[in-house]
Design a protein that fits this description.
The protein folds into 4 domains: about 130 residues, 2-Layer Sandwich (Alpha-Beta Plaits); about 100 residues, Uridine Diphospho-n-acetylenolpyruvylglucosamine Reductase, domain 2 (2-Layer Sandwich), CATH 3.30.43.10; about 120 residues, Uridine Diphospho-n-acetylenolpyruvylglucosamine Reductase, domain 3 (2-Layer Sandwich); about 90 residues, Alpha-Beta Plaits, CATH 3.30.70.2740. Helix content is about 30%, strand content about 20%. It has 18 helices and 18 strands. Helix 10 packs antiparallel against helix 12. The protein starts with a strand and ends in a 17-residue tail after the last helix. Bound molecules: flavin-adenine dinucleotide (FAD), (2R)-2-hydroxypentanedioic acid and zinc ion (ZN). The site of zinc ion (ZN) has 5 residues, from strand 17.
Length: about 525
């Protein structure tokens, strides 16, 4: 039949392909909650989660409590930018997933590095614990306080400092929203080297603090490679300026790497320097249906052979994910029902060249019987609506119930076996068990939904999922970090010696432990 998804019609033998229907789905943006003014995020459940300290039976460490005198100091330093109203604080005390809840009484909104430095110097002297917060889209409970830690928001630190349109080096404050940065760069023919479903809310500082992976990692690599420099304020208020824009700099230890992925436990990242690639002029997206995970793997191998340097994303999701985005977000599946879906993106500089390569790949995939149906998009709105099917799975899951979330990396051929075993193990205890993720990076997102949080479901999942992952030499956190929820499981992926060294580094930089306590690494005496 004739296939018209690409610019020039071409012949595809044997297979029935459906053409894309445009649904005009926009990128996810978190709705304001009707009941919580100031909340920027999706709030689907009216009931607040229990306090973290109670649900997880954690004891508060002996930090000082905020006094009227402390508030006076903060008001003097940040006039009009000290939030103490309980209703305004609510959305900052609860995580995006609505699974953890702290009880902070104050949120500070500094505008520059000097102010962050003054806040931390004071808090350190007073032994007041703090939690840095960017867009509060983190998925491991790292971005909200566990008890009454002071919140330091980067929301007002949202200025671009410089952009070099020859080298592509962008220098900006930590509170710039990822999507806003991308729009800024696109106007100059560049793009951000990372992209994720939370782009409309997450901050670049939060992205560095979590070493976020996302949808472009296959192409542009980890943030650890694209970040050129950063500035951070240490717990004692001193400012560490590593804000280079150099591609090459082998002078001593690479200190910025300590802060990338440190989840707010070593200091507050205040500015970032990042190397941005040119915006690709030709982008194509294909959505293919596959009847088994084995076929998905074969498509991946074939895809790398055919598309090589222009391949920019290879994502997969199962039929249960598709059902969730259809049910909860009313997205349209342009294909007949399949067991698995593969989203392939190519990005390059020549439309004709890229389309030819994609055509060749698709014909080979179909000739080999690897895919039963598919659709291709080259124009922006179709590309967006195909991407929405993959990007908005997290949002659809949040509508389905309480979400148990696992973010694992392991050899790709093992990825889906864990989903199947988990499904069989949980039976009807779970509402839905889904598997999806960045297959090109060996990263599985295993998610389980249930009516509510119960110890029974949790006991069926943990330590089973972590043991399974460790047995296959995987990582129990591929890209979301450890935060509050996963920190005690670090030993499944790191040796005792490695954790001890982390604890020493933490103690050296933050002897009082005021920076984001109860998060990321177990405390030294555990
Ligand atoms: P927050 O959630 O506010 O904070 C995250 C952690 O970083 C916390 O520990 C916080 O204390 C610390 N922190 C924040 N800012 C600073 C700072 N300036 N200095 C020091 N510490 C700081 N993650 C991925 O890796 N890949 C994905 O594809 C992906 N997709 C997502 C899709 C959705 C729909 C959602 C809701 C989340 C997704 N995430 C993903 C998780 C999350 O968006 C990322 O971890 C993101 O990088 C967090 O940024 P943020 O600004 O929201 O940080
Ligand atoms: C994604 O890849 C994010 O969409 C979120 O990392 C994954 O919700 C998840 O489990
Ligand atoms: Zn992911």
């Amino acid at each position: 039949m004739t296939f018209s998804g690409l610019g020039r019609p071409f012949k595809i033998c044997h297979m029935t392909w459906t053409t894309m229907r445009i649904t005009g789905v926009s990128k996810p943006r978190w709705r304001k909650a009707a009941t919580a003014p100031g909340c920027r995020f999706l709030c689907v459940t009216p009931a607040d989660p229990p306090l973290t300290g109670e649900r997880y039976r954690v004891s508060r460490l002996p930090f000082s409590r905020v006094t009227a005198q402390d508030l006076n100091f903060f008001q003097q330093e940040l006039p009009g930018r000290v939030v103490t109203d309980e209703e305004d604080l609510k959305s900052h005390n609860i995580d995006w997933l609505r699974t953890v809840r702290g009880n902070s009484k104050v949120l500070l909104r500094p505008q520059n590095t000097h102010e962050v430095s003054e806040i931390l110097r004071y808090c350190n002297e007073r032994n007041l614990a703090v939690t840095p917060q960017g867009g509060n889209t983190g998925l491991v409970g790292g971005s909200v306080p566990v008890f009454d830690e002071i919140l330091i928001s980067t929301a007002l630190m949202d200025q671009v400092i410089s952009f070099d349109d020859v080298s592509g080096a962008l220098v900006c404050q930590a509170g710039c929203v990822l999507e806003t940065l991308n729009q800024y760069l696109e106007g100059q023919g560049y793009t951000m080297p990372l992209d994720l479903g939370a782009k409309g809310s997450c901050h670049i500082g939060g992205n560095l603090a979590t070493n976020a992976g996302g949808l472009r990692l296959l192409r542009y690599g980890s943030l650890r490679g694209t970040v050129l420099g950063l500035e951070a304020v240490l717990p004692d208020g001193s400012i560490l300026n590593c804000l280079n824009s150099l591609r090459k700099d082998n002078t001593g230890y690479d200190l910025k790497q300590l802060f990338i992925g440190s989840e707010g436990t070593l200091g507050v990242i205040t500015s970032v320097s990042i190397l941005c690639p040119r915006k690709p002029s030709a982008v194509n997206v294909a959505l293919l249906g596959c009847e088994s995970f084995d076929r998905v793997l074969q498509v991946f191998t074939l895809c790398r052979d055919h598309l090589g340097e222009i391949l920019s994303a290879f994502e997969f999701f199962d039929a249960s994910c598709m059902k969730l985005v259809q049910k909860h977000l009313h997205l349209n599946n342009p294909l007949p029902a399949n067991a698995f879906y593969v989203l392939i993106e190519t990005s390059g500089s020549s439309t004709q060249h890229d389309e030819e390569k994609l055509n060749d790949f698709l014909v080979s995939a179909m000739d080999a019987g690897l895919t039963a149906s598919g659709t291709v998009a080259t124009d922006q709105s179709k590309i967006k609506s195909i991407w929405a099917l993959r990007e908005r799975i997290t949002e659809a899951l949040a509508h389905d119930g309480y979400v148990y979330k696992y973010d694992l990396s392991m050899p790709v051929d093992k990825l889906y076996a864990l989903v199947e075993e988990t499904r069989a193990r949980l039976g009807s205890t779970a509402k839905t068990v889904v598997g999806y993720g960045h297959l090109g990076d060996g990263n599985l997102h295993l998610n389980v939904t249930a009516e509510s949080h119960t110890d029974t479901v949790l006991a069926a999942l943990e330590p089973f999922v972590y043991e399974w992952t460790a047995q296959h030499r995987g990582s129990i956190s591929a890209e979301h970090g450890l935060g509050f929820k996963k920190k005690d499981h670090i030993y499944y992926s790191k040796s005792r010696e490695a954790v001890q060294l982390m604890q020493k580094i933490k103690y050296m930089l933050d002897p009082k432990g005021i920076m984001n306590p109860y998060k990321t690494i177990p405390t030294a005496d555990q």
